[in-house]
Amino acid sequence: MGMGRGLGGPRGYLTEEEKKNRPKLSKELLFRILSYLKPYRVQFVFVFLAILISAVIGLFPSIITGRIVDQALVGKNMQLLIQLLLLALVTLTTAQAIGVLQSYINSWISQRIIFDMQNQMYAHLQQMPHSFYTNEKQGDILTRMESDISGVGTVITSTLTTSVSNIAVMIATLIALFTMNWRMALVGIAIIPMTLIPARTVGKTRWKLLTDVQNERDKMNQLITETLSVSGSMLMKLFTREKSEYDRFVSVNDSVTRLTLKEQRSGKWFIMILGTLSQIGPLLIYFTGGVLMISNGDATLTIGTITAMIALVNRLYGPVNSLLNLGVDFTRSLALFTRIFDYYDKEVTIKSKPDAIKPDLSSTEIRYDLVSFTYEHKTPILNDVSFMIPSGKIFAIVGPSGAGKSTIVNLLLRLYDVNSGSVSIAGTDVRDFELAYLRGNIGVVTQDAYLFNGTIRENLLYAKPDATQEELEAACRLANIYDFIVSQELGYDAMVGNRGLKLSGGEKQRISLARVVLKNPKILILDEATSSLDSISENTIQNAMELVMAGRTSIVIAHRLSTVLAADRILVLKDGTIVEQGTHEQLLEHSGVYRELYETQFRRVLEQDQ
Q: What digits encode the pLDDT tens for the residues 31-52?
């Protein structure tokens, strides 16, 4: 009969965390939410009209049932019986058809709003600075993009339209009830709290159990994710932890099973209680009707009227129950939008100026002038760093771990902006560049060569989507990866695996280098690009790297001596300050940081390579 709809589930009650973080409704928040509905206001008008028509037509079957009893059955009129049955069939079919139409329009609206919001979110997140991704959990980003925005569809289809539908059904049904017989109507309404009070009590118990089940399921999912991932399964095998992890899984799974059974058992009692109360309701209405008809001799009250009123009262249970949960649904809806808007409102701190320029880069002289930088107001990373790289020259940056080497190139790319001082290319501050133009003219090969889970071809074309096969092959030959690719069964269409896991470190690095070659940048950055390679792999691409760097202004962050020796000048960085600079031979003449690095790091690597 629809009385249990919406009860006993998680949506019926707020958690303590939800109560604590309940968002405040403001005019600004409400108008912002409505701004996403505004483009579809015409469709909403049709939805609300369909709801009103459906609410009225939905009364007819119950009213027709009363006429069937009083006029067709009691009057023994077969022709009228057939006519009334056909009329009931038509009204039922019409109501269902309107419901389907309403559902279709509703789904279309919700999906279009989800489409709009996800596009807006993706475009916004694309513009977020690099610091956002170093601080934010990836899972939170996915939750905003998927779960939260998809939940907006539920808000529209459930919270908004269902609430309007429930109100329309209640008003139409109450008018019909009081029109038929106001005394019986009062009795019918009085029955409803009898079913709602125990329903909400049992529902709260089930909600607590469902919450416990979900918490245990979260533990189980975490365990599965950790132990059955690529890295997790390998770690489990290396430390022979299969038995202990299996026992841990069985324990959590047993807890989930026991709690689920307990929740389901409580649900069965819940259904029995509602079923019993739903049968008591009609009995009370029949009793009241009998008193009015038999004892009081009310001639206006008929058996058909009593039958119709019982059907109409049953029609009230679902809407009343749903409206009792409206406050919870509304709070969760606001929280959902608040979470989404929180991401929308995150400031894009690094972007092109309104008057950004695209200066001529026939000369690519790079200059750092008294550059200082600190990550999130913590310990300073760079302190008054100044140097100049002439156009077409190769500079190497060496120094202990944490000295600020990668930070220097991050500032050139505007992944971060300087706190003070300036970084310029061809005499123009990088902050004055059009951002896409700046990054489009800089190629980067990093130590951790990132490859998408696709084919070799797809990863290469990421640099230049319209590249020809000849251009691909030329870039791969230059990066010394051509022979490897053609030896694969699928060649350029071979899959590289998640993050390139099907390839060795050297193969990933060379594909990454080929991708940069395909981009053909004016400036090249090699950020420890060969540190993860063995000596054989390094030697195979060292000449290729030198060919790629030829004629380009290049910055090399190096762990390998061979890479340092290829540089025109070496900058030695320590504690965020350039403490030495010069050629390899010049720096070895002094007993400084470079000499120490050479003795402790470069020479050892050189001896290992030999």
A: 888 888 889 989 989 999 999 9
Q: What is the dihedral of CA 283, 287, 288, 293, to 10 degrees?
A: 130
Residue 4 has what pLDDT? 33
Please, are residues 188 and 285 in contact by the beta-carbon 8 Å criterion? Answer: yes
> Is the domain of 501 the same as that of 546?
no
For the CA atoms of the chain, what is the radius of gyration?
36
Whether residues 500 and 430 fall in one domain: no
What is the CATH classification number for the domain harbouring 66? 1.20.1560.10
Q: Under the phi-then-psi rule, with left for phi > 0, alpha for psi from -120 to 50, and beta for the rest, what region is 7?
A: beta
Low-confidence residues in the chain, pLDDT < 50: 1-10, 609-610
Would you say residue 189 lies in a domain? no
Same-domain status, 541 and 417: yes
Give domain status of residue 587, yes or no. yes
Q: Are 490 and 457 in contact (CB under 8 A)?
A: no
pLDDT > 70 in the chain, percent: 85
What pLDDT shows up at residue 529?
55
Do 395 and 556 touch, CB atoms closer than 8 A?
Answer: yes
Q: Are residues 455 and 585 in the same domain?
A: no
Q: Are 389 and 553 in contact (CB under 8 A)?
A: yes
Per-residue pLDDT, 577: 92
For 166, list phi and psi in degrees, rounded to 5: -65, -40
2 is a domain residue: no
C-beta of residue 173 within 8 angstroms of C-beta of residue 167: no
Query: How many whole angstroms separate alpha carbon 212 and alpha carbon 206?
Result: 10
Cα separations in angstroms, 436 against 427, 432, 441: 18, 12, 9
Distance from first CA to last CA of the chain, Å, rounded?
84
Could you tell me if 513 and 531 lie in one domain?
A: no
Query: Is residue 502 a part of any domain in this protein?
Result: yes
- Distance CA(475)–CA(455), nearest Å, equals 16
pLDDT digits (tens, 9 = 90+) for 497-509: 876 778 887 788 8
- Return the amino acid letter for 313: V
